[in-house]
Amino acid sequence: MRNGFAIETKGLTKVYGSGNTEVVAMSNADVTIRRGEVAALLGPSGSGKSTFLTAIGLINPPSAGQIRIGGELVVDGPVALRDARSFRRKFIGFVFQKSNLIPFLSAIENVRIALEINAWPAAAARERAMELLDYLGVADRADHYPATLSGGQQQRVAVARALANQPSIILADEPTAALDGRLGRQVMELFRKLAHEHGTGVVVVTHDHRALDVFDSVYEMEDGVIRRSESGVQ
Amino acid sequence: MNLAVKDIRHNFGRFALTTVGVGMLLMIVMGMGGIYRGIIEDATLLVDESDADLWIVQRNTRGPFAEVSRVPANLVHRALAVPGVETAREFVYHTIQREREGKPIRIAVVGLSWPTDKGESLPLIAGRALAQNHFEMIADARLGMPLGEQIRLGKENYTVVGITENMIGSSGDGLAFFTVADALDIQFEVPGEAVRLERQARYARGTLSELGRKQPALAETAFMAPREIPAIGPRQISAVMVNVLPGTTQQSVAAVVAGWSDVSVYTADGQRDLLLRGPVEKVRRQIGLFRVLLTIIAAIIMALILYTLTLDKLHDIALLKLIGAPNRRILGMILQQALLLGIVGYGIAYVAGLRIFPGFPRRVILTNNDLVQLALIVLVISVLSSALGIWKAVRVEPNEALSG
User: Fold this and answer.
1) A50, A104, A116: residue with CB nearest B11
2) Cα torsion for A203, A209, A213, A217, to the nearest 10°?
3) B382 vs chain A: nearest CA distance in angstroms?
4) Nearest C-alpha neighbor of A102 from the set A146, A63, A60, A148
5) Nearest by CB to A59, which of B3, B329, B398?
6) Cβ-Cβ contacts under 8 Å, B316 against chain A
7) Residues 6+ apart with CB under 8 A from B79
8) Domain ranges, residue B89
9) Cβ of B13 under 8 Å from any chain A Cβ?
10) pLDDT for B166-195, tens place per residue?
11) Per-residue tens of pLDDT for chain A, all 234 residues
12) Neighbour count for residue B308 (Cβ, 10 Å)
């Protein structure tokens, strides 16, 4: 990873359909997130937030534009220059609206799986997963299955999993939607802490305007157009 | 970390019930194979156990196991006179149905050539071989007759002196061994009234015949016992079993006997082939086809189960893809679960079968070859049936994990 940017997008565009049925979901999105920066992405439903997130998460390729992650050109137009899944495994962490833990794995196993698929030896993966759970304050729930964890605990385990491989960026899609205000703020502050301590770029899609003070930058999206908002940043 | 095992442990109840279901299905497949083997074994048991090199039977018939065969009892002496013959034994075989304790009992009657063959070579599990020429029998355990029990067949009572195991006729009835004389008595038993009527009929025929009109005293012979009337031949037996002398080929003896115009001769293998190609063939094919159908059904059901199990995990699979899990890890999970389902199901089928099959009315024989063959088929089915689930898993997009 060559420069100080966690992620850069240039002219990122996504068009669904063609001709009369053509829908522009995202148009010329230019976004730069530095290492250690926590960015919020606001916007109403259908504004294109998820399209942007899935594009920079290498899940849904754009129709046009470029994506650089850690300075490396990863996507150029609809063409992925790297194996998307392998790249996600190593450099991108995901946190979702719901915790999205695998129900048949315990808390520690949910973190371990992210490490083991990245070729960590089992013992080292176990140790690293335990460290992360401890760091996030849920070490005492390590052997519990997701169904027996509270919403906040599940979200912390999900964050631990996202952090496991020390990614360049973490993409979070409304990670506090299922949490109450206090827990939601805790999770947002956790992202800020992680970003600042580990130099990870964090992009959080949120509707929760109460916690905007936590973010270093705020982007707003409407009708597929993204712009940086100075007013949202404290 | 083995995802397949983790998933199974977490959903153990469902997996256990599913494997029991698959196990029961495989048990039926295994049982059909066992019944198939049992029918072949039962059909050829007597041919194999009698240890005869050649079977001499009624001309142009396929022998006593396939159809009615009648040969004169003195055929034994003709056979003995053939160069190279070591022993020749009478053989009688027929099936009877009688009542015992108010229930029907079917007995496949076998006549042993007393005193040459007393039944010593039979697989006795209790009692002894025949020790006298009359009124003793060796019964198979399947007939349910204990040692010492007496059963009335015809005009005589026969005592069970020995018990065999797994001596079953081609129709599935338990075998009972008597001397040839007793077996014939049972076969040709005629009620007193029938004897009297037959004597009157013979007398009437005699008086109406030209000889009877010229010599009326001859008609009186009609009231004599049949064996005392020269015009009535002795009772006929079913076949003659021949063993050849060491150093003599079966073919050389068979060639001589084949020259006799009143009988046909088969080697033991020939008799066995006739049995398998004759009365057993349709049953064998029917069960074989049924077994193939059951195997296909088992494969379809396993495929549906594995597909359903995969459908339940689509969100988890999408999530695994999202966090970067390679396909081999995800597909490995499905394949391993398929194999575990097949292997555990097979184990349940085997254990359950060992307990349940002995209660079946016909023998169910599980041979090692059949068990290994079915195990391989189950492995192949497991792999093939996981294909549908794997196909579905491959098509899952990682962004489906985002749909919540």
Assistant:
1) A104
2) 40
3) 23
4) A146
5) B398
6) 102-104
7) B56, B85, B88, B240, B242, B257
8) 45-279
9) no
10) 888 877 789 999 999 999 989 887 777 887
11) 445 788 899 998 988 887 778 888 888 889 999 888 999 998 888 888 888 988 888 888 889 999 988 888 888 877 777 788 888 888 888 888 776 889 999 999 999 999 998 888 989 999 999 988 988 888 999 999 999 998 888 888 988 888 888 888 889 888 877 677 777 787 788 888 888 888 889 999 887 777 788 888 999 988 889 888 866 544
12) 13
Pairwise CA distance, residues A233 & A39, whole Å:
10
Q: Which residue of A has its CA nearest to B2?
A: A113
For residue B128, what are the contacts with CB-CB under 8 A and spacing of at least 6?
Answer: B161, B162
pLDDT of residue B111: 92
CA distance A68 to A162: 20
In this structure, which CATH number among 3.40.50.300, 3.20.20.70, 3.30.70.120, 2.120.10.10 belongs to the domain A5-229?
3.40.50.300
Query: Which residues of chain B does A86 touch, with a Cβ-Cβ cutoff of 8 Å?
Result: 324, 326
Residue B263 has pLDDT above 90, yes or no: yes
Distance between CA atoms of residues B336 and B349, nearest Å: 19
What's the token pair of residue B45?
């048991």
Domain boundaries, chain A: 5-229
Torsion angle of C-alpha atoms B30, B36, B41, B42, degrees rounded to 10: 120
Question: CA-CA distances (angstroms) from residue B12 to A67, B22, B350?
Answer: 44, 15, 21
CA distance B136 to B149: 10
Going B60 to B63 to B65 to B71, the CA torsion angle's sign is positive
Identify which of A202, A134, A126, A199 has the alpha carbon closest to the alpha carbon of residue A162.
Answer: A202
Two structure tokens written together for B394: 């491959």
Helix ranges (DSSP H) in B51-130: 75-80
The tokens for B93 are 């075989």
- Pair (B318, B338) in one structural domain: yes
State how beta strands B156-164 and B174-179 pair: unpaired
